[in-house]
Specification:
Blueprint (H helix, E strand, L loop, with lengths): L11 E3 L5 E9 L2 E4 L15 E3 L3 E5 L2 E4 L3 H6 L7
Amino acid sequence: MTDTSQIKEHMEVIGADGVHVGTVDRVDGHRIKLTKKDSGMGSHEGHHHYISTGLVAGVEGDKVRLSANGDVAVAFEEEEDG
């Protein structure tokens, strides 16, 4: 289990494949809240998404690396209401 206290605001969240998934807004319980600017397009645009901290493989410098590839991690994103 990764120490989520190392995850800080503005860190880049990347998939295991190095693909950009989002930018940390803050850690909210067992989820990482991503900034709105990484919210996607269409009906996903303009609100926060969350990634489970269970997907975090590690923190490397200013990056949060996930255990899943970027496209898979995005599929696991949750909406604001959880």
